[in-house]
Amino acid sequence: MTPEGMFSDIPVEIGVVFEGERIRKQVMHVELGGPQVKEKFEILRVKPPEEVINGEVKVLGPDLFEMAEGGAIPFGICVEVAGSQLEADMEAVMERRIHDFCNWIEGFMHLNQRDGIWLRVDKKAVSRGLTLNHVGTVLIRLFRSALPIIERISVTIITDPALVHRWHADAVRTYEERDARTRGMTDEDVDVFYGCSLCQSFAPSHVCVITPERYANCGAISWLDGRAASRVDPRGPIYEIPKGVCIDPETGEYEGVNRVVKEKSLSDVSRVQLYTAFGYPHTSCGCFECTTFYVPECDGLGIVNRDFRGLTPTGLSFGSIADSTGGGRQVDGFHGLSFEYMRSPRFLRASGGWERIVWMPSDVREKLKDYIPADLYEQIATNKEVASMDEMLSFLRVHHHPILSRAAVAELSSPGSVWAVADTHEGHPVPSGPGAGISITFHNIRLHADRIFVKKGRK
Ligand code: SF4
To answer: Which strands make up the sheet holding 357-359, listed edge to edge?
Structure first.
């Protein structure tokens, strides 16, 4: 709820009721950032008071009504705040609120975070007079109202491509500096983890559990950021999770985590194992930077990121795989991830870690080069080397990928197999049945499927 009259000078409605509003291409005036645009970002910086002109909104570049309909525009938002109680450690968490607050604007959609943002504005909002200046004004009022510790605030919105390019480089440097702060810390170094429920407006049963070795799915909140946020607003959407007894150090299951996740998910999720993609994996909302997908033909996992525009060797795009992953569910093999979690020594440790990864887009492999074990780097296939499942299986054999040593796979992934999987994942049965036809055996499970893909096999 917003106080009556707070937005009477804004030509569209403002309120939490518009969260979750989707703007389809047919009704879209313009796209800001998004997958078709290389450079986009949003950032919030804490500044000394004398550097923030309180209440100022600047738009650098064309405004909405000056943009050609149907286009995709390089885009940046920079929010600068000052306050006697504010610290740089709080930047990331406050920055994440840009997502919420943009989504409160009728006809304005915001997805993702940092340098992955994707916004759309609909034709009706622009025809009613919505401008980027209004967007900046709304952000300022909502930030002030939600976070009274902000004493001064200004917003700069950038649509000039040359300026986006310049500001983008600074933003990326800042993200990297933030991420590097928790590297080297371990889960054993701390007594509490942090939970975040900010994405429950989209995925009501989702709770992010943020530990020193497991960055948030969105890639925007580290353990240190969680600590700063929960200190400022202990009853806010980011809160402490006392670890409690460690039930299983390998999978990363903690009594305290289970208790809090159960409570915050209203009993939808009662067990979470932080370092596995099977069994009781961490839930995925919809903001993950990347997701794994299960590859039954070799019992491996692929990884695909949000910006990848092609098809994975399974024939599915990021969007289709993300549909199978998100919504706060626990789906075997389909697991939302941040880039920073993939830099963690505990990355999917209980599921085989990097040895389980068989495919990823080439630029993702390059980005993570320093974190993928050196002997595995060339063994992981990318979109540059393979385009189909057959090509991928052949690549894995030629490069002696360790996935071939997993039980059942070496035998079943011989040339000519179209459906070859292991019998269990960490004790959980999965579909099985090689050969020309398909036979599926399930043991003692309840099955819910939003979609089923049936692929024609080779003769
Ligand atoms: S992805 Fe997780 S940490 Fe990030 S905003 Fe959503 S719930 Fe919070």
So the answer is: 335-337, 290-295, 300-305, 357-359
Ligand 1 midpoint to CA 283 (Å): 11
Atom of ligand 1 nearest to the CA of 219: 4
Tell me how far apart the alpha carbons of residues 285 and 217 are, in angstroms, rounded to a whole number. Answer: 8
With the most atoms of ligand 1 within 8 angstroms of its CB, the residue from 95, 182, 198, 210 to mutate is 198
Q: How far apart are CA 327 and CA 204, in angstroms?
A: 8
Amino acid at 421: V
Is the CB of 196 inside a 6 Å radius of any atom of ligand 1? yes
CA 26 – ligand 1 centroid, Å? 29
CA-nearest of 197, 198, 205 to 331 is 205
Residue whose CA is closest, atom 3 of ligand 1?
A: 216
Identify the weakest region by mean pLDDT among 43-52, 57-66, 194-203, 337-346: 194-203
Q: Is the CB of 337 under 6 A from ligand 1?
A: no
| Position with higher pLDDT, 380 vs 417 | 380
Percent of the chain with pLDDT over 70: 88
How far apart CA 105 and CA 107 sit, in angstroms, is 6
Q: What pLDDT sits at residue 458?
A: 58
Report which protein residue has its CA nearest ligand 1's atom 4: 218
Q: Can you say how many angstroms the Cα of residue 239 is from the centroid of all Cα atoms in its chain?
A: 19
Q: Which of 175, 197, 287 to mutate to test the pocket of ligand 1 (most atoms within 8 A of CB)?
A: 287
- Closest residue CA from atom 1 of ligand 1: 218
| Total residues belonging to the chain | 459
pLDDT band at 431 (very low <50, low <70, confident <90, very high): very low
Domains with residue ranges and CATH for the chain: 16-180 (3.30.1650.10), 184-287 (3.40.970.20), 289-325+352-459 (3.40.1470.10)
pLDDT digits (tens, 9 = 90+) for 296-327: 999 999 999 988 989 999 999 999 999 989 89
What's the predicted TM-score (pTM) here?
A: 0.79
Distance of CA 377 to the CA centre of its chain: 23
349 CA distance to ligand 1 centroid (A)? Answer: 22
Q: Is 321 in the pocket of ligand 1 (CB under 6 A)?
A: no
Which single residue is written with the structure tokens 């099955």? Answer: 447
Q: What is the rounded (10 degree) CA torsion for 23, 25, 31, 36?
A: 130
Q: How far apart are the CA of 96 and the centre of ligand 1, in A?
A: 8
All residues at 6 or more sequence positions from 437 whose CB lies less than 8 Å from its CB, including other chains: 457
